[in-house]
Amino acid sequence: MQRTLGTCYYPEHWPEAVWERDAARMAEAGLTWVRIGEFAWGRIEPAPGDLHWDWLDRAIGVLGQAGLKVVLGTPTATPPRWVVDKHPDMLAVDAEGRPRKFGSRRHYCFSHAGYQEECRRIVTLMADRYGRNPHVAAWQTDNEYGCHDTILSYSEAARGAFRDWLAQRYQSPDALNRAWGNVFWSMDYASFDDVDLPNLTVTEPNPSHALDFRRFSSDQVVRFNQVQAEIIRARSDAPIAHNYMGRVTDFDHFKVGDDLEIASWDSYPLGFLEDRVGADDAKKRHFARQGDPDFQAFHHDLYRAVGRGRWWVMEQQPGPVNWAPYNPAPLPGMVRLWSWEAFAHGAEAVCYFRWRQAPFAQEQMHAGLLRPDSADAPAMDEARQVAAEIAEAPEVQPAQAPVALIFDYDADWAWSVQPHGAGLSYFGLVLECYRALRRAGLSVDIIRPDAAQLAGYKAIFAPGLMHIPDDMKAALLASDAQVVLGPRAGARTRDMAIPDRLPPDLPGIDLKVTRVESMRPDMPVPLSGDGAVTGYLDEIEGVGETVLETEAGQPVAMRFGGLTYLAGWLDARGFDRLVSEIAGRAGVATHPMPEGVRIRDTGTERFWFNYNPHPVSVEAGELPPAGVIRQPR
Amino acid sequence: MQRTLGTCYYPEHWPEAVWERDAARMAEAGLTWVRIGEFAWGRIEPAPGDLHWDWLDRAIGVLGQAGLKVVLGTPTATPPRWVVDKHPDMLAVDAEGRPRKFGSRRHYCFSHAGYQEECRRIVTLMADRYGRNPHVAAWQTDNEYGCHDTILSYSEAARGAFRDWLAQRYQSPDALNRAWGNVFWSMDYASFDDVDLPNLTVTEPNPSHALDFRRFSSDQVVRFNQVQAEIIRARSDAPIAHNYMGRVTDFDHFKVGDDLEIASWDSYPLGFLEDRVGADDAKKRHFARQGDPDFQAFHHDLYRAVGRGRWWVMEQQPGPVNWAPYNPAPLPGMVRLWSWEAFAHGAEAVCYFRWRQAPFAQEQMHAGLLRPDSADAPAMDEARQVAAEIAEAPEVQPAQAPVALIFDYDADWAWSVQPHGAGLSYFGLVLECYRALRRAGLSVDIIRPDAAQLAGYKAIFAPGLMHIPDDMKAALLASDAQVVLGPRAGARTRDMAIPDRLPPDLPGIDLKVTRVESMRPDMPVPLSGDGAVTGYLDEIEGVGETVLETEAGQPVAMRFGGLTYLAGWLDARGFDRLVSEIAGRAGVATHPMPEGVRIRDTGTERFWFNYNPHPVSVEAGELPPAGVIRQPR
Amino acid sequence: MQRTLGTCYYPEHWPEAVWERDAARMAEAGLTWVRIGEFAWGRIEPAPGDLHWDWLDRAIGVLGQAGLKVVLGTPTATPPRWVVDKHPDMLAVDAEGRPRKFGSRRHYCFSHAGYQEECRRIVTLMADRYGRNPHVAAWQTDNEYGCHDTILSYSEAARGAFRDWLAQRYQSPDALNRAWGNVFWSMDYASFDDVDLPNLTVTEPNPSHALDFRRFSSDQVVRFNQVQAEIIRARSDAPIAHNYMGRVTDFDHFKVGDDLEIASWDSYPLGFLEDRVGADDAKKRHFARQGDPDFQAFHHDLYRAVGRGRWWVMEQQPGPVNWAPYNPAPLPGMVRLWSWEAFAHGAEAVCYFRWRQAPFAQEQMHAGLLRPDSADAPAMDEARQVAAEIAEAPEVQPAQAPVALIFDYDADWAWSVQPHGAGLSYFGLVLECYRALRRAGLSVDIIRPDAAQLAGYKAIFAPGLMHIPDDMKAALLASDAQVVLGPRAGARTRDMAIPDRLPPDLPGIDLKVTRVESMRPDMPVPLSGDGAVTGYLDEIEGVGETVLETEAGQPVAMRFGGLTYLAGWLDARGFDRLVSEIAGRAGVATHPMPEGVRIRDTGTERFWFNYNPHPVSVEAGELPPAGVIRQPR
Ligand SMILES: [Zn+2]
Ligand SMILES: [Zn+2]
Ligand SMILES: [Zn+2]
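The joint structure predicted for all components is written out below.
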């Protein structure tokens, strides 16, 4: 498949007179896709049942006539005011018990039946009207599920639905009580209708309660999305996507993705560096105008898995954004670099958000390809350059990477319910592991925690898998790959209990986690040799070969044939040692990278990226700041 | 007019037997004014309609007999409990949606009609009784509007009044929708009654929505105050004041001031240094017992403008206060220095808060001129010294300063709604500019953003004016002065949109802000030469002469004849360079000041102030710690 | 009395089949006590009136048959869900006005009459059944009053009860108004029913209001506990205890203790170091696996006073806990050290919490003596060693210490209502003083603020006593001991007013605090000689002998015969100087301790403890890390 570019456009924001010129400029710039419609409910249906499709018909027509393919978004992320007036209790409720008011976006609770019905209605109407429109070449459901912390709702609607979900899962209150260990503090329930949502408790709620609420909340998103996907699929042959966000882990993207053809995500490297990467100040300064060298790549690899190979960047940062604590401009060249990093990871399309900077409302400080006065913004030239480059480039050639890294949303929830040490998170652990793999010059496939995904890899890293189902344990043990598990591997049963035989409870492996501890981040435990454990350490007993140990001789990584149990959260140097060790055993060649330089291999090319604001000399040549080298393989 | 001193007194706090002795001691100390009454509603009207004026009659009599002039405060900042019982919904509601309970002060919402009526009633009764009392020589409305964050209320009353205000302003919901750009996220309203207050939205509300709520909230204060002023003015010839606070910018003080004869403010240099100046720790340590060298002066100059020349310090810190995070004692001499700094800026009166330290209730740790045991507190001697000095000093001789600095409350709200970078504020920007002017030894007039105020200045600094009305643009361009605009000058239309032709959109000036960025505070962008841009930078294109530029050659200040556009937030060194450059062009002589030393010129004298805890030698002589030199001009 | 060990056990968490084996292992390990029942209400009474005592009968039987003595807890800290369904308004309400939901523990308001009645009923039933059971050798009321910030409740029930309490105390609203100084801001009340709880006020509430609410809240706990104690005492001869927490000062433990035979507390040295000691990062790192060298000792001495000599550690940390920000494992030997430190301070019993780590619910990460798989956890060997050692050791021989330190809960509330400087707390001040005494090698008796407790001491330290009743003043002045008062001694009347004659208002002592100031923690005021005042300083005038003064000559400690007034909060070096000075005058020998080493004397032995992770050589011999030396006296 040919690589393509696109942009996000809001015809409803602009006089109809400029649509044609806009469309022509998009086409001229080499763009293929134009996403529209996802916030337009208010103009489609300004009052209940008063439908205004005409303008949207014309907008799609104008864009299509210019040769552009339309991605049509369902508008359910922004219900108009009248929908809220009709269903006042559709608003989500935050963890403090406060309804989240109308006046921005995503102001709905996934569990509200009335709002679900409104969505079914408007999506059906939209799919009926545009399902066979020749210019509508793809769909997007809703917009950025989970953005602005919108998955967990503590509303009455959510409470009722949670009780139903529990009843379905446990069948009897006693089964729930046993599963959760409610005997602990006389927390037994006599009825599912006694179960409340786990917020505002006097001290922490039962972790099983909290984890089930996380699982329920994720399932509500899956169902909400599935309804839309089914309606559209019955009426259109165009593929359906959703645009996920960076580091939103509050729902299971794999399960949502199972109902869609394409995964896509919204990539804002500079905003993310400031507000969610977790970098320290020195790193934030160094990469302020380039973004983190691994964060985007991680999500590219993650969403390639979510899309089962088909994935896009639906929104690509083109300049300063408006929403981060600080909003600098990108270094010249970075918009091109970010685009090529996406293509190197197999993206089918990269769409710049947004076409023209809006002069009004919440995102008026968000750059676009055009300035508010319609002149080209700096990103436009870089987009044109990429368009020219992909026209010459070989087609997308995905290749299985030698190394797999498992990402498990359920594990993320379990860690968030019980981090054990302040600041510890599953996402953070997996990202640290991913960084080490990238520093070693390795291309990585992120895979879901599914036995069927393991084939063909030489090494499989699976840090932090709190609960491992039996079939997954069997598959990991049966794999030919070098497999790394831990810390906290199999630490919990499905119901969030410690397994009777102690973790990791792997059949045939003589290994027990007998005690765990978390430590201050300023108290690293040095490894014998180099590197350290920081923050978290499983105390293990077993008969395997010690691969890493503390200076005091406590085992930190222990090998049982192809399986290595990692007992601690390693610092960067420690992870580098582990990756080197495992890659060596797996027969995978590593290429240690200079700081800020990264590579990625496709079936046909090796890509080199320089995230530094200074030039770097590498074996493939001279990399200027923001430089990209494409090296045939 | 002769300079005067005064104090704040609460006869209701003390046995009537001590009033006479207190009055005599005030007079003996050289005080002229005594402010009373502003918290006494509960003793004036302990139950609905049960009026007890007798004690207040006697108190005023005793004070007047001693030769003191009374400033009588309306008691509306502390409605008694029964008022709240009668109007339970009169309580303001905070941004979290919680009613702010009875039990301290300022427990009312400016928009509550019932409470407005109670105020009208009690103020009328008070003005009827004391409007012609010979001892009542001035009035104060309410007390410290905005203190304790009391301007923005999210109550039902505020919501209703906001809807009325919007209907008045926009006339139709569609006009509002267009003005705000509500199409952006399907936020259109079909009726004004659909508009909610902009708190607790899922993500940020529309900035136009937020800004209009700020403007509405300010207007409510103006109306509230106006009602009282009109009642008093119809019944008394004495001038009316309000006592504003330091760094409270939530309402437009100029508009409130238009209904009053005198502006006054409550100056707490040590408390403010700790809780609102924004100083770093080193500065807080250095000036812990002296206060910031510029913060009081800034407010003196600001409130001189608010009072159209007539202004007081209504409350002057006389010793440790009770309410800051840390409450040290002033360096000996500082109470005198603070008093003289006020007089140097044209104050008619300085009143020490309070006469005697209260042994009970919220401010029992707040020093007065007397200790709780009625002995003189340390400030008393300094007050006596000032009284003796002003008796010998020339009368207040205001003189127009060579340099004006514009302060615009509306700009402050726009920045607060959309700072773009964490920690950026309009007040902070203007204060930084003011500091640089003071470091250059310049006396400054702060002026309101009004074309009529510009005459007679050699230089006019107007940083950060987010919206500039057309007539103001014309006046600035027509001025003979050196005018400095930016950053963010004219960045928004009245409705908080980006202007079509891009900012600053100045007729006849070929200059555009094509992109803006905010940066981490630890990422200064060095200027070529010396100094740096920190935090905020407009990217500009224009044909003017570059006055300052970054090391990389990006213009930071650009000159078009007498107009200089400043594109970035400068650090202290950068501002010093700009001030030096502009003063040079304007023909204004500068006198670079040693750290912590400041001067201020009146028509007759140059004042030197030493805010350091160590002596400094200056051209006018030796300044001891807390030293003041008065040098004839 | 012989020293004993015990553990905390939850038969309801485990299959009945393992009870017997568990009991045998407890006995074999040398344990005497087993505490049970305190969270078991849900299994005792799963539905209203449906009582299931049989399992508890059998559990007590099995334990008793094994030779163990049972401590039976009343289950009122964990009312089952049906109790909350019956009394929905029994939930406490937090300071933000939010009900604190069911789902963990301590979900009740002490003031709720309906819940009080439920407690009376279940405790009566339990005492009826087990009051004469031969195996029930002690009782525990409820569990950890005040844990999770559960003393202050802002519920309707609390509001009503507070009004009753005020009516009882003041008899008339006018008396209350006068006592509180409500005239200050027109805060007078016409009826007790006008008084609200002091949360969510616009600015701080009246400190008298806030202090009375603290006193009321404490009294509610005393009454709640008293009811249970009286029920049990009428039905059982076994002593009654409550298990207090570390640094919970929201109620008066002395008054609760007056209704009980034994004080006990729950000692978690590593958790407390992280979450409540107030240590800086360097100290947290150094003692991360050992705990603070003074914090446990302080509580041991405090609760010895609360228990009038009889006290236990009811819960002793045996390994990593689950609830602190970071949860490291103890250094080997520390469980033994902690146990011996308790015995050195006179503990009758030390019970390890808990027997077996629970695999489920909130504390599944909390270590026990057994691992979840029932194997011995590391603490088990240390417990066995202690059991062996106490078998050989002399009996508990309490001895009055030469030095007393007064701890006054009422003073703690007054400081918390009015710290005057950020971060200042009474508890912190007293602990700093205690640390200095320990650094000087002194054994200390903590005593309640009661004239009858003063006899027999050579030195009495009473820092920070905000209010001192007249009889206490007289007793302190009459004491033969060296007495240290201040800072803030007698700073307030009972009603939280400044005394007319200024503090400390001591009959016959010519000393006045004329002004007070608080200072930034980074602004120490150096003492002449060595050490500094930090954070707080009384300015004093008096005719005593200056013992300490600032470099500038301001007196910081002033002596009047045997009385020394301390005017400032001293740093460690300053406190060391003061302790040395006072001990010298009192004729008490000091033994300056190396860092992390502490001693404690009983009637028969001197104990040496090494809290360092490295060995230290002392006069008594070589102390390894976690080392204990018992030296006969
Ligand atoms: Zn219509
Ligand atoms: Zn009356
Ligand atoms: Zn039953």
